[in-house]
Amino acid sequence: MNKKKKTKNKIQGNLSKSIIDILRKNPGKTYNYKQIASVLGVDDASSRNQIIKKLAQLAAKDQIEQVDRGKFKIEGSKNYYTGVLDLTTKGYGYVMVPELADDIFIANKDLNSGFDGDTVDIYVYNRRRRKRSEGEVTKIVKRKRTEFVGTLQQKKDFGFVVIDDKSMYTDFFVSGNKLNGAKDGDKVVVEFEEWPEKADSPFGRITRVLGTPGEHHTEIHSILAQYGLPHDFPEEVEEFANKLDTSIDEKEISKRRDMRDILTFTIDPKDAKDFDDALSFQTLKNGNYEIGIHIADVSHYVKPGTLLDNEAFERATSVYLVDRVVPMLPEILSNNACSLRPNEEKFTFSAVFEIDDKANVKNQWFGRTVTYSDERFSYEEAQHIIETGTGTIPDDISIRKHSYTVRGAMVEAIITLNRLAKKMRSERMRDGAISFDKVEVKFNLNEDNNPVGVFFKTAKDANKLIEEFMLLANRKVAEFIGKQKPKKTFVYRCHDEPDDEKLAALQNIVGRFGHTLNLKDRQTTTSSLNKLLEDVQGRKEQNMVDTLAIRTMSKAYYGIENIGHYGLAFGYYTHFTSPIRRYPDVMVHRLLQHYLDKNESASEEEYENKCHHSSEMENLASNAERDSIKYMQVKFMQDHEDEEFLGVISGVTEWGIFVEIVENKCEGMIRLRDLRNDHYEYNPEEFAVTGRKTGQTYTLGDEVYVKVKNADLIKRHLDFTLLGSREEVEAN
Asked: Using only C-alpha atoms, what is the Rg of the chain?
């Protein structure tokens, strides 16, 4: 290749971006075309002419300023912003900029190698009247992720990885020496390396082969890899954890409040392995009750700055997939040393309250303890005690596999705690808390982890008993620190007020089912939301309304600035009760002890950064959990392709109708192009589609019969065939 051709290639690609980058690095300084050419390392006439032409174009669009003939500069902050890129499945995106009211539209051609979630610098074009602001990415400040999951399409001595994530608008080129043993059709993890200016695709290398698409093991690991979530612990972390001294020694006991002689028990799911909370109960001489909420003292074992702490912080949360738990802490801690198993002494961190018969807190104490759990109950066993008032546990619900009798003091404790919990819950509701008792979808799995049945988990009194006392501990710990003067740095669980537009949209939708919302003020909003959630119980639209109501809520997050918790109607709230599975709870334990020891306020910046990371990891884990449920639903429906199902229309879009099956909550789509009997048009105001010729309308909440058309495990997507409305099908 001759020199002239080489220099010309140097400025191919996005010349606008190259010029703007040069000017932005020296805001306010003027450059002529010769200086730009010098920085770019070109000196041929063709390249100089391209630069002269591009400078004129950029000045004409007001992206740069011509201050004198042939001299250009850029103002440091004019029309340049930094924000987070949010890509759509259609290949374009929006950038959320804190300083601007509206998101900035970014066309596909202006993404300039930006990926979903990246922090980017953008240039915003002058806004035209009645048009949304548009911009282009000028720099990638920080990649949100550098690893992606996809399927390898192998050629002779190279390959392309087609990314699973629907928001990824490009595939990855992988050279033959970076395939890492992957074969054509394998599902893999590819790591982004670079995106050369003249290349159509980014370059990457395969770091892990996940397996054959569609296989159970492959797909579950793909879900974890897609969100950058870990699976196995590094060997050195396991080794570190296994060497910890987990003995209950007298020296450490002497530093703690000894509560081993007080009646103590746990209530957890029957298949739980880690028990991170226990309740103790005794009646005091004055007739009040002393109730202890005892939490595994994880911070006793997980010390700041250690290998174990660094790993726990990076994970930030346990991940609960349908067929497995990916724990935050190694098993030696999560299932053994920190698990409050029955008939074992444990180090705990406790919130102990004196409570009267009306559920008023009279006194409180926080600190490190040593406890001994006398009994372990499943929720079903505790519920049986509450419902019957007796301690005889029948063999069909017993976790011991045989019937047994619970001693009277334990029965009395559970019944009393349930009565107090109901009073606390009633008070919360009066104060404006919102009662989200959303139905959880669970699966019966066989030994090969294939779903053989679907069932729904609903919260009963035993669940709510535990919930109320955990809420009490979380709230009181937050109040104890939050109300101190001078202000102390602390980790709060924050929940802002709902979005007014989303509430108005919900009001519009539920009105179609005869429900109303009163959005006059906070009190009327919460009380009418609670009435709505109560009224839809057992009705066809329940799951849809529950889901839509939750979506109106702001997303809860961790932060050091307390704004209260809207959904719980608490002025102060934190997470103190689950340090085995949530890193913020570990931080709360450390800070609480730090302040009990009368130390100065901790670093705001350090804890704000940790809170932000914990919130991000919580969101990723939540997405992975949701994807694993969707995967298992699709897998379940594969074995029921010949059956007819009654469903409820749960969403209507311009390209299809979403239907949720009543008996198992599996959701799929009927594509409008598959409705052969008519041409259906979308009516967004009515949440409906209507046939041009027949006038047949399908609208949100309608009951219809469907069959499975296609169950795609890899895309985790269900397509349905519409058999007709409920009336039509049942009439025939």
From this structure: 30
